[in-house]
Amino acid sequence: MGEIDEAFVQVPDHRPKLSTIEVDEIPVIDLSASETEKLAMEIGKAVEKVAKAFFHLPIEEKRKVKRDELNFTCYHDEEHTKNIRDWKEVFDMLIQEPTILPASPDPDDEELEATLTSGLRIPLSLETCLEYCRVVEKLAFRLLELISISLGLAANRLGELFKHQTGPLRLNYYPPCPFPELALGVGRHSDGGALTVLVQDDVGGLQIRSQSDGEWIPIKPILNAYIINIGDNLQVWSNDLYVSAEHRVVVNSQRERFSIPFFFFPSHYVTMKPLEELVNDKILMKYKEYNWGKYYVTQNGSNYKKLDAENVQIEDFKDPESV
Ligand SMILES: O=C(O)CCC(=O)C(=O)O
Ligand SMILES: [Fe+2]
């Protein structure tokens, strides 16, 4: 079986227990009143086929479209979450045509860069993926409306921040792993944006950390259901009324696994801070403000490889005065 590369090995506290409990704690919401979800599911199946065909290409072919520190789309097989290498391969493409982002993480550099996904020359059907994005973004806007209303805000309050959304669609591929007790497909993290709309196949492996006792709860695959993750942006905007979900992926030695997260990120110029409507003299802002575009670009550049220090995260903006 050989030896595992040290870069993949989790510290003992974060190694997965392979016999996990089965629970039904995750709420399931039926939004099937419109055709949008049905259509998204159908195109989603086509995207899964596209992903399978791409990841089964020889590694040399995939590496021809490999990302680097400056261009953070396309193929990547060296992502480090919390500084440990993930047992996975990914393909990222930006959703908005074009997507506008800061050209560099440097706070003084005001240059912007526009990326057109459909212009890429890639052995993968980008049109199918972009068609899927157009349908899923309708679902994401609808979810944002429901969340805005739940916070006592106007229905379009959050959606307005996504006029020039910056998120990627990601294709995740987890090859079988001979060391599933030592490595993780994705290490523990919460998603950086507002919402993630995730489709997983029937293999299973996604786990979410219970807020009450810290246990890892497996998210059982449900046919034709999306998993919706609350991301860090909603935690900041809602001043901790919504909490981003910590999750990870365990791998197995038998079956490969595919998943497709759609990351819904706001416009690059959005200033991240708790919404004014949700704070007052008594409820203080729990986060200091920061610019979304620079934060995102900084985080992406550093996920690229192993670093000396941990990646930038929302905890870095927690206001010590408010806790
Ligand atoms: O593969 C999954 O189920 C989840 C992947 C994930 O958490 C991510 O890509 O951020
Ligand atoms: Fe995630």
Automatic annotation (TrEMBL):
Keywords: Iron, Metal-binding, Oxidoreductase
Domain Fe2OG dioxygenase: 164-266
GO molecular function, one term: metal ion binding
Domain of life: Eukaryota
Gene3D superfamilies, alphabetized: B-lactam Antibiotic, Isopenicillin N Synthase, Chain
Entry keyword Oxidoreductase: yes
Keyword Iron listed: yes
Entry's family note: Belongs to the iron/ascorbate-dependent oxidoreductase family.
Protein's name in the database: 2-oxoglutarate (2OG) and Fe(II)-dependent oxygenase superfamily protein
Lineage, uppermost ranks: Eukaryota, Viridiplantae, Streptophyta, Embryophyta, Tracheophyta
